[in-house]
Amino acid sequence: MSKATRTGLAPVNGLRMYYEVHGSGEPLVLMHGGLGSTEMMGALIPALGRTRQVVAVDLQAHGRTADVDRPLRYETMADDIAGLIAHIGAGKADVMGYSLGGGVAVRTAIQHPGLVRRLVVASIPFRRQGWFPEVLAAMAQMGPDSAEAMKQSPLYRIYSSVAPRPGDWVLLHEKVRSLITREYDWSAEIAAMQAPTMLAVGDADAILPEHTVEFFKLLGGGKRDAGWDGSGMSSARLAVLPGLTHYDICSTPALALAVLPFLDGA
User: Fold this and answer.
1) Is 143 exposed, middle or buried (0-12, 13-18, 19+ CB in 10 A)?
2) 6-264, what's its fold?
3) How many angstroms separate the CA atoms of 53 and 17, rounded?
4) What is the pLDDT of residues 170-198, one digit of tens each?
5) Are the C-beta atoms of residues 22 and 45 closer than 8 Å to each other?
């Protein structure tokens, strides 16, 4: 992971949200997945930071951002990201998120369309039933037992080394469980989004393949032949990355290589 040029704590909605800035250029707000932190996106940041000003964040209760007395919800975390964009004076920013952070990125584009130039979402369904059934079952099992079991994991080792209150690890599991077991369906709102959007998944992801195709169609893609000159192409992009899963899609440069041409395109 590259060394940040600066770090800060943005006062947004009662949080002191940790963020770090890498590189220079157009701003790109980058969000990690559940139980993670900016370190989860470390393999992507050097590549993205070659042409962008990457603003990597720790979401509520994650990493260096201390929790506050409110549940974890995609909608409130999206408001936090809007506050962060205002705090850094970006005006508009590209927004990219993975898994839980992808849900926050989608909600940011829905709730604050004037702040999002382009949107990249990796490994997140637009409704909860887009996950494979076994993934939904595993989500329901999160709580104190999973928190204890994961104390042997790299996620916990990072959390315990950077969190303001490492003892909140169990509470984080309970709050994430409350979030990811709630039913949602954003199909109508996604179909109305205006920001050009790239959807990225692994070909062995935790999301049903047919759901990914439906998501792409909601974004305006996959509805007609683009034609020999590409004139029928929508502004949406779909990247299905070979040999990757939900759990390693952010640990390979393949994702950044797919995303950069979309962000830098006309």
Assistant:
1) middle
2) Rossmann fold (3.40.50)
3) 18
4) 999 999 999 999 999 999 999 999 999 99
5) yes
